[in-house]
Design brief:
Length: 242
Amino acid sequence: MKFKKPNQHGAWAMIIMPVLFGMFASSFNFYQILFFAAWFMIFFFIDNLLFYVKQRKKQIGYVKGSLLFLAIATILLIPVVLNDYRVLFFFLAMLPFGAINLYFASQRNERHILNDFSAITIFSIAGVLACFIGTHQLHHNMIYVFFISFLYFVGTTFYVKTMIREKKNIKYKYLSFGYHTLGVIAAFMIHPLIGIAFIPSLIRAIVLYGKPLKPMKIGIAEIGNAVFITLFIGLFITQHLN
């Protein structure tokens, strides 16, 4: 049995941040904790399965490891589903995007922008699901949870590409600069707290561009940015959406 641990900060941020936003935007209950724990297991299941799919020399140990995580996730989710079976519809909504991720893994092309957007959509839906578990109804707060998560991680995707794999591609430079600038303007139009939350993303996208930073330093800076935006978005949600 083998286990692949995520080695990118962005993976951990995508697991945690949208679910926290969903919890902030709803009434907290124990089922959200069960879902949060199960969501980690689901991620490990998918990550190990996709890693197996893209291997040229298949190692069945990763499949065994992924099935173990799936079993744990299923056990954790049983009380959540029994409490409200409608959570299953959110998982069904994730499947088409999961299929896209599976395709790109099989093509060994996981850096494709469409693959990134598909993964971001899945994690954003998870935030909406966390909110639903707390409200047991479709609520306008879910719109904020989804789009704030989606917009933030799309910006992060553009930024990381300009710093590592596409750092010589001028198209991504202007795409990143333009996206972050418009994102901050749009965020301030919604609420000052959201605007403040997105300012560091714009600053780092412009100031750090072209700097010869190692991936580890980029990751450390992104962790700080993720914490910052989580605090301010959490403050906005708890004060103005509840």
